Amino acid sequence: MNKEAKIYVAGHRGMVGSAICRRLKANGYNNIIIRTSSELDLRNQQAVQEFFANERPDYVFLAAAKVGGIHANNTFRAEFLYDNLMIEANIIHTAYLHQVTKLMFLGSSCIYPKLAPQPLREDYLLTGPLEQTNEPYAIAKIAGIKLCEAYRDQYSCNFISVMPTNLYGYNDNYDLNNSHVLPALIRKFHEAKENGSNEVVVWGTGSPMREFLFADDLADACLYLMENYNERELVNIGTGEDISIKELALLVKEVTGFEGELVFDSTKPDGTPRKLMDVSKLHNTGFKHKVELREGIKLAYEDFKQKHTVPALS
Ligand SMILES: NC(=O)C1=CN([C@@H]2O[C@H](COP(=O)(O)OP(=O)(O)OC[C@H]3O[C@@H](n4cnc5c(N)ncnc54)[C@H](OP(=O)(O)O)[C@@H]3O)[C@@H](O)[C@H]2O)C=CC1
Ligand SMILES: C[C@H]1O[C@H](OP(=O)(O)OP(=O)(O)OC[C@H]2O[C@@H](n3cnc4c(=O)[nH]c(N)nc43)[C@H](O)[C@@H]2O)[C@@H](O)[C@@H](O)C1=O
């Protein structure tokens, strides 16, 4: 991408979109186009087509989506399917109509079958049934992948798809009902410590395994792949290491300094037992993540405290 290129970051206020914008600016790209969802509802096809006609971006990072953790996915099933289908269909089709030089679609590790062999290779896609709690979101993401493939096949569009693992970092979502596990645990342990509670409830059995990548590492990977990857096939983006939810909770407990007990609420779903990504394709391109989990949790916790805790009255 040349430094004067017009780069549209869809979802710039989100955890991933804001990280991509940070990285673009740090790398000298200053022609970045952004819109909030109230300025441009990406589910509205006409509004998207007018936006592209006016702004004519050269590159698109498609990081806008309806996103949430296991409870949100399992509760707002229609919204996770409809919103994500509409957002991706509108942007991908309009990017083709306006001859965008290159588009990157962000999928997710949940697209792979619930019980696929581990670690998950990109060619395991559509080889088995999906995890029920996030099937709508996964189906939408798979449709996005197939749109990029089909527009490449029929119209020679340079649209690539990347599959991030579970993410965390600056500007994460800390709503206890809709967030992912890591931000939820950071908030729960912090508030338990501040309130003097002697226990923190962890959803599920604690036995599922999850892989976690710091969002700024993902952003680095996205810029690297936007510059260097032009293939039809998916690319997994992760660390290649996973941890049990129980071990993760104990790590967050240690970082936040909470000294009480963990209580596991097995009435809550575990979801996919494991979804470790095979990241050999990514590593073969020369890219590797930098931030390890303990350090990343410390960085995310500091960000949480700066943005979410009311300063004590002086
Ligand atoms: N977080 C994670 O663990 C993972 C995320 N991903 C993928 O990464 C991408 C970004 O996720 P993340 O940053 O965590 O999500 P966030 O929820 O933090 O951000 C999502 C963004 O999408 C925008 N958006 C949502 N609906 C609309 C709409 N109708 N019109 C316009 N904009 C909309 C929001 O805009 P606004 O703020 O203006 O309302 C928001 O900025 C998504 O594609 C997600 O599927 C993949 C794997 C894991
Ligand atoms: C990125 C990925 O994210 C989602 O899939 P998920 O990884 O299953 O989601 P999660 O992070 O919410 O849970 C991971 C595990 O953690 C356990 N857990 C414990 N305690 C809390 C807790 O307090 N909150 C949450 N949310 N989970 C908790 C929870 O029970 C589960 O076993 C989908 O969006 C999916 O589509 C997707 O792409």
From TrEMBL:
EC class (word): oxidoreductase
Catalytic center residues: 137
Residues the entry annotates as binding substrate: 188, 203, 210, 270
Transmembrane segments: none
Oxidoreductase among keywords: yes
Pathway: Nucleotide-sugar biosynthesis; GDP-L-fucose biosynthesis via de novo pathway; GDP-L-fucose from GDP-alpha-D-mannose: step 2/2
CDD domains attached to this UniProt entry: GDP_FS_SDR_e (cd05239)
Keywords (A to Z) from UniProt: Isomerase, Multifunctional enzyme, NADP, Oxidoreductase
Domain of life: Bacteria
Residues where NADP(+) binds: 11-17, 106-109, 141, 164-167, 180
Record-listed E.C. numbers: 1.1.1.271
Positions marked as site (Important for catalytic activity): 108, 110
Catalysis performed (reactions): GDP-beta-L-fucose + NADP(+) = GDP-4-dehydro-alpha-D-rhamnose + NADPH + H(+)
Limits of the NAD-dependent epimerase/dehydratase domain: 7-238
Pfam families xrefs: Epimerase
Stored Gene3D superfamilies: NAD(P)-binding Rossmann-like Domain (3.40.50.720), UDP-galactose 4-epimerase, domain 1 (3.90.25.10)
Membership in a protein family: Belongs to the NAD(P)-dependent epimerase/dehydratase family. Fucose synthase subfamily.
Biological role: Catalyzes the two-step NADP-dependent conversion of GDP-4-dehydro-6-deoxy-D-mannose to GDP-fucose, involving an epimerase and a reductase reaction.
Protein's name according to its UniProt entry: GDP-L-fucose synthase
Gene that encodes the chain: fcl
